[in-house]
C-alpha cells in the first residue's frame, strides 16, 4: 500500500511514508512493504507514520543524523521510569532538535538533544535538554537488544510510542523455558534468569536480564552475569565484557567503545591564536544606558555572555550624561564600523556623526570587571572568539585569559581592568559629549548587553537568522563586512577514549 505522502532523502538514505489512516494490511509485527514506493531504494531506512506530528518529528530525527529507534527508546524510559509524572504526557513528549557541536568539541560532554516536555498540571510546554552521552548509551542499548531491530530492505517499519511500549512492556518469560525472576532487595527491579539446558554439543548456560517491577523489561535475559551496583545501576557481563545498565534504559560500555572518538586539541597553538585574535588591534567602545542592572550576577567577572542583539557602540563617549546608570566599556578588535559601509552610510549621515560601530547578536564577551564610580556602574567586556565559550570555560582557559591580561600590562604599563577603571575616572574630568544627549542615540542603546528586556539572561547558544526579511538582508550585509576570521578554529586529532575500568577489578 502506498502512503498519502512520502519524504525521501537520497543523501541521508531514509524515507518516511505518511498514511492518513492506518492501513488494514498493518499486522502484528507493525511493518508495511515499501517495494512499490516510488523513490525508495535498497539500503534505505524506511518508516511508516500515521499522524502529521509523527511525520514532522520523524523527519527532524533523521535530518539531525539520529536513530529514531534510539530516540523513541529514550522517550519511553524518561516518561515511564525517570519521571513517572510524565507518563500521561508520553504521546506529547517529542523530539525537537539536536544542538550540534563542531567536530573539534567532545559531543558526548557538550552536545544536547532537546525535547518538548509538557508540564504536568499546566497548559505549558517546557524544553527538556539531555546530553548526547545519554543518547549514545541508549544507542548502545538498542544495538544490543534484539527487540529493537527494525531494519530490512523495502520494509517500512512502524517505530512509534505504541510499538516501543509493547516491546518494552512485554514479559519475555512467556516465550522462554526455565524462566525465573529474582527480586533485588531495596530496589524497584528484578533480575530475570533463563537456563538453556545442556545438549550433546553445548554446556548448560544461564542468561540474565533486568526488569522493573512495573513490568518494563530493560533487557531480556542476554547477559552471562548481572550484579546490582546501587538502587538504579547494574553491572552486567556479556562475552567477558563489562557494561553498566542504568535505570534510564541506557547501556554503558565500561571501556567506552560505544562512544565516538574524543577530539584532542593542540592547546598551545589554539591559545596563541586566541591571544592574537583578541589583542591584535584592541580598541575601546562605549555604550551608556539609563537602565538598572536587574541582577549583578548576570555580569559576574569571569563569566561569558552573548550579545543577543545588534549592539550599537561608539568610541566617542566621554563623561556619562546625567541619569546614566550603566556604561558598557567593550574591548574588541572585531567591531564592525557601520559608518564606513557605503551601502548603509550613504543614506544615514548620522552614522558618520556618531561613528557608529556594531557588534553582531552572536558575538561573545567575557566579563572582566564590574565597578561603580559616581553612581555609574561600568561593565567591562572583552570580546572573545565563539570557540572559547567551550574551550576556555575551565580553569586552564580562564587562567590563560588572566595571563593575557598580565602580558597586556607589560606592554601598556597597566592591566586591562586598571586601564578600564582609569578610563571611567578620567571621563568625569571631561565634558559630556553631545552624542550622549542625542535622543535617537539614547533609544538605540537602552538595552543591556546579554540580558533580555524581562531581566533574564540571554542564552549562550547562537541564534539563527531572524525570520523578517529586512533583518535577514541586514544580517547578510553585516556578515560580509565582519572579520572573515570571526572565530579561532583549533587544530585537533581524533583519539580513542581513555578508560579507567579494569575488568579484573569489576
Q: How would you describe the overall organization of this protein?
A:
The chain has 506 residues and is of the alpha+beta class. 25% of the residues lie in helices and 27% in strands. It has 13 helices and 25 strands. Strands 1-2-4-8-3 form a five-stranded mixed β-sheet, covered by helices on one side. The longest helix is centred in the C-terminal third of the chain and has 18 residues. It is elongated and about 100 Å long.
Order of neighbouring strands in the sheet with most strands: 1-2-4-8-3
Report the strand count: 25
| Fraction in helix | 25-40%
Query: What general form does the structure show?
Result: elongated
Rg estimate, integer Å: 29 Å
Query: Beta-strand level of the residues, as a percent range?
Result: 25-35%
Name the poorly predicted regions.
Answer: 501-506
Roughly what is the average pLDDT, rounded to an integer?
A: 87
Oligomer description: single chain
Number of helices: 13
Question: What's the short version?
Answer:
The protein is α+β, with helices and mostly antiparallel strands. Helices cover 25% and strands 27% of the residues. The C terminus is likely disordered.
Q: What attributes does this structure have?
A:
about 500 residues, alpha+beta, five-stranded mixed β-sheet, 13 helices, 25 strands, about 25% strand, disordered C terminus
List the helices and strands and how they pair.
Elements: E1 5-9, E2 14-18, E3 31-33, E4 45-49, H1 52-63, H2 68-82, E5 94-99, H3 107-110, E6 112-118, E7 125-131, H4 132-144, E8 155-157, H5 161-169, E9 179-183, E10 189-196, E11 205-212, E12 217-223, E13 225-228, E14 233-238, E15 241-246, E16 251-253, E17 262-265, H6 267-279, E18 283-289, E19 304-306, E20 311-313, E21 326-332, H7 342-345, H8 349-354, E22 357-359, E23 364-373, E24 376-384, H9 388-391, H10 395-412, H11 416-427, H12 439-444, H13 469-481, E25 492-495
Parallel strand pairs: 2-4, 4-8, 21-24
Antiparallel strand pairs: 1-2, 3-8, 5-6, 6-7, 9-10, 10-11, 11-12, 13-14, 14-15, 15-16, 17-25, 18-21, 19-23, 20-22, 23-24
Amino acid at each position: 500500500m502506498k502512503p498519502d505522502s512520502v519524504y525521501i532523502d537520497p543523501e541521508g538514505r531514509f524515507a518516511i511514508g505518511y498514511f492518513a489512516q492506518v492501513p488494514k494490511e498493518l499486522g502484528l509485527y507493525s511493518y508495511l512493504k515499501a517495494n512499490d514506493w516510488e523513490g525508495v531504494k535498497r539500503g534505505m531506512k524506511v518508516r511508516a507514520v500515521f499522524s502529521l506530528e509523527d511525520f514532522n518529528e520523524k523527519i527532524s530525527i533523521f535530518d539531525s543524523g539520529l536513530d529514531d529507534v534510539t530516540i523513541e527508546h529514550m522517550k519511553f524510559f524518561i516518561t515511564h521510569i525517570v519521571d513517572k509524572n510524565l507518563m500521561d504526557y508520553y504521546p506529547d513528549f517529542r523530539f525537537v532538535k539536536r544542538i550540534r557541536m563542531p567536530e573539534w568539541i567532545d559531543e558526548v560532554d557538550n552536545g544536547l538533544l532537546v525535547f518538548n516536555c509538557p508540564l504536568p498540571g499546566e497548559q505549558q510546554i517546557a524544553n527538556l535538554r539531555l546530553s548526547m552521552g545519554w543518547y549514545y548509551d541508549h544507542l548502545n542499548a538498542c544495538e544490543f537488544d534484539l527487540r529493537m531491530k527494525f531494519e530490512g530492505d523495502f520494509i517500512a517499519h512502524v517505530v512509534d510510542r505504541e510499538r516501543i511500549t509493547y516491546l518494552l512492556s512485554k514479559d519475555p518469560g512467556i516465550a522462554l523455558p526455565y524462566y525465573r525472576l529474582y527480586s533485588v532487595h531495596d530496589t524497584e527491579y528484578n533480575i530475570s534468569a533463563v537456563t538453556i539446558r545442556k545438549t550433546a554439543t553445548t554446556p548448560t548456560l544461564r542468561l540474565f536480564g533486568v526488569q522493573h517491577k512495573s513490568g518494563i523489561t530493560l533487557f531480556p535475559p542476554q547477559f552471562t552475569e548481572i550484579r546490582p551496583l546501587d538502587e538504579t545501576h547494574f553491572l552486567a557481563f556479556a562475552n567477558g565484557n563489562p557494561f553498566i545498565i542504568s535505570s534510564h534504559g541506557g547501556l554503558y560500555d565500561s571501556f567506552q567503545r560505544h562512544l565516538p572518538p574524543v577530539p584532542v586539541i593542540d592547546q598551545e597553538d589554539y591559545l596563541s591564536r586566541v591571544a592574537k585574535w583578541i589583542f591584535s588591534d584592541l580598541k575601546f567602545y562605549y555604550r551608556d544606558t539609563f537602565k538598572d542592572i536587574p541582577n549583578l550576577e548576570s555580569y559576574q567577572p569571569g563569566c561569558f555572555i552573548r550579545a543577543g542583539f545588534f549592539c550599537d557602540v561608539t568610541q566617542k563617549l566621554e563623561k556619562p550624561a546625567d541619569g546614566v546608570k550603566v556604561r558598557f566599556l567593550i574591548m574588541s578588535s572585531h567591531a564592525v564600523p557601520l559608518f564606513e559601509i557605503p551601502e548603509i552610510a550613504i543614506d544615514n549621515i548620522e552614522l558618520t556623526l556618531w561613528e557608529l560601530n556594531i557588534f553582531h547578536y552572536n558575538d561573545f564577551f567575557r566579563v572582566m570587571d564590574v565597578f561603580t564610580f559616581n553612581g555609574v556602574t561600568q561593565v567591562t567586556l572583552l570580546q572573545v572568539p565563539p570557540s572559547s565559550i567551550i574551550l576556555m570555560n575551565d580553569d586552564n582557559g580562564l587562567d590563560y585569559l588572566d595571563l593575557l591580561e598580565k602580558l597586556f600590562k607589560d606592554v601598556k604599563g597597566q592591566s586591562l581592568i586598571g586601564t578600564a577603571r582609569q578610563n571611567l575616572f578620567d571621563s568625569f574630568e571631561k565634558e559630556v559629549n553631545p552624542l550622549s544627549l542625542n535622543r535617537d542615540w539614547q533609544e538605540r542603546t537602552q538595552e543591556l548587553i546579554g540580558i533580555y528586556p524581562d531581566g533574564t539572561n540571554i542564552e549562550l547558544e547562537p541564534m539563527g537568522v531572524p525570520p523578517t526579511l529586512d533583518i535577514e538582508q541586514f544580517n547578510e550585509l553585516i556578515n560580509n563586512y565582519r572579520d572573515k576570521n570571526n572565530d579561532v578554529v583549533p587544530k585537533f586529532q581524533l583519539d580513542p577514549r581513555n578508560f579507567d575500568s579494569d575488568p579484573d577489578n569489576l
